Structure prediction request, 202 residues.
Amino acid sequence: MTWHHVSEAVTLLGDNRVLLIMSVLFVGYLHRQKQYAIIKSWLRTLIYCTCTIAICKAIGYVFIGRSIGMVFVSISSHVALSSFCYPSILLILITTDKNIIINCYRILIIATVIGFIIIVALSRLILKQHTIWEIIAGLLLGSTSVVVFMRSSKDDTVGLYFYQTALATIIIGRIIISCQSMPLEDIVQQGALYLVGNVINL
Prediction:
């Protein structure tokens, strides 16, 4: 087994399909805890992070273009989503359920979460899917999303149904895309170029 094979397995920790499934389980847990305001804030921030990733990728493909040697084209969605989802879920588990994590193990669990993010970032480098600057951008976006989420986690529950519906729509869309032969990255690139081409031709 080579580092490449290990990286292919590790990078799944940041795969959007895995994190979307985790999101559904996390929302279910929060529903059971009746933490509706937190659900709204978390879903809103997750959607903000996801949309920001898509917009950044589209802008990069349209104005820079994918080519060998470019230091920044496509922000790493694996790193951005993992650096938002894992810390946010951990923080909420610690603050909403005092019994779910024993105090003496909290440091170990926090270190494990940080380790997840680091190895996902390293796996994207080893697999040559992103440059160091694209990974740093992903870390910044994910970390910023955590801050935004924690600052708004005591919001009201108005509009909760909308965000739950939006998450369901994203999941359905991702399932449909997974059934296509073309990778998601190529779909984003071609979609961005198609939209810009239509705008220019108007």
Q: What stands out?
A: The chain has one domain: 3-201. Helices lie at 3-10, 16-32, 36-63, 77-96, 103-126, 132-151, 160-178, 184-201. The mean pLDDT is 83. The first helix runs from residue 3 to 10.
